[in-house]
Amino acid sequence: MTSLSIHHSVRKFLKTLPPDLKSKATEQLDALEMFGRLLPPPDSKKVAANLFELRIQGSVQVRLLYGFSGDTVYIVNGFVKKSNKIPPRELRTAHRRFGELA
Question: Per CATH, the architecture of 3-101 is what?
Answer without folding.
Answer: 2-Layer Sandwich (3.30)
